[in-house]
Amino acid sequence: MTDATSDLRLIDYQDRGQVRVVADAEALAVAAAGLLQSAIDEAVGNDGKAFVALSGGSTPRRMGELLATPPYADHLDWSRLHVFWGDERWVALDDPESNAGEAKRGFLDLLPVPSDQIHAFDTSLDDPDLAATRYEETIRSVVPVRGAWPCFDLVFLGMGDDGHTASLFPSTFAIQEASRIVVANPVPKLNTTRLTLTPPVINAAKRVAFLVGGAGKAGMLHNVLDGPVDIELMPAQVVRPQEGAPLWLIDEAAAAKLDRVTAGG
Fold first, then answer.
1. For residue 264, how far is the Cα from the chain centroid?
2. Residue of higher predicted confidence among 58 and 69
3. SS3 category, 243
4. For 166-189, what is each residue's pLDDT tens digit?
5. Distance CA 220, CA 128 (A)
6. Residue 149's domain is classified under what CATH number?
7. 163 within domain boundaries
């Protein structure tokens, strides 16, 4: 089964990533669903299980709606899938702002993924640091290790208009974390703490894909891909997978200011 996404352009940004431009938000969700399908199929075929970390946001929400319907729902071996999240807000699972809660309600509860293979952050605990430690323990006990780090088959990421990804926000300590898999990351500008995977475990994944849509992201995407490297200012630039470069799935609106798009490259 293939995904028909009507690609507009495929652009190589070398170590910063391969950029795949699709028409609009719907095509972006279809492309994301196709990527998840191929990652699961490949991982199950090779190893018998698949380990994926999801992100929050509107594109993953629509991707999930697609996955819960044919042909995806009927094609994939959901019983072999382990689901994690790249980050989470410090809210209850039933809160509308919960990344895991939204995914569970939106599509995971509609699919035959065993409940004990859906690994949400435990935000019912009293302490975000304890929740981060527990999530790290879960990842270490479930996800296969390759080299020094657990190795996800696919990590989905978003990018904020401030350049953050996962919950690695500008000028926060988690950007430079080099030994932990998961941390509780204080975000002063939001007056909150977020739970997040750290750069080393993200970069250890077999595939890393950014999903970026909308004109509001165009300026920052230009800065991240065309501008100088400054990971403190633009944490999305810290994503440099050990196996190749990240894939950027973006829509035409988000691509509008990229140098290599406007130049016809």
1. 28
2. 69
3. coil
4. 999 999 999 999 999 999 999 999
5. 29
6. 3.40.50.1360
7. yes
| Residue 41 resides in a domain | yes
- Please provide the distance, in angstroms rounded to a whole number, between the alpha carbons at the two ends of the chain: 30
Handedness of CA 89, 182, 101, 73 (dihedral sign): positive
Structure tokens at 152: 């996800």
The C-alpha angle with vertex 96 and arms to 95 and 102, in degrees rounded to 5, equals: 105
Say what the pLDDT of residue 265 is. Answer: 54
Would you say 64 and 107 are in contact if contact means Cβ atoms under 8 Å apart?
A: yes
Q: Which helix (H) or strand (E) holds 248?
A: strand 247-251
Per-residue pLDDT, 58:
84
- CA dist list (Å): 241 to 15, 52, 249: 9, 15, 16
Q: CB of 156 within 8 A of CB of 55?
A: yes
17 part of a folded domain: yes
* Structure confidence by residue, pLDDT tens digits, 217-251: 999 999 999 999 999 999 999 999 998 899 999 99
Q: Tokens 């403190």 — which residue?
A: 232
Rounded Cα distance between 165 and 97, Å, is: 17
Establish whether the linkage from the previous residue to 71 is cis, with ω within 30° of 0.
yes
